[in-house]
Design a protein that fits this description.
Length: 103
Amino acid sequence: MSPPAPPGPWHAHAGPKDGPALERDGWPSMGVFANATDPLPVGVAHGAGWTPDPMDPDRPPWALFRLAVGKVPLPGVWCLVGREFVRTEAPRRGARLTSPPSP
């Protein structure tokens, strides 16, 4: 059995300071931080696809990520909004995932 996932919240030093990270900007990987001002990452976020904008499907799609903190993969997929990772319970209709789901 794997160790429990750390609780978060999780932050990034990259991405828009206000609003979501968009798929079109290309987000392969980035550090995950326990606090927005921490100098060293505690994990990594890997690009995992995209999902339509939840408020307006005509706007550019949001980037999706898979997170790992330490050696623990966090369940689900995550969006980056205002440099904070937000877990999405389920990708929206039309989403495209580029990596298999976490356990």
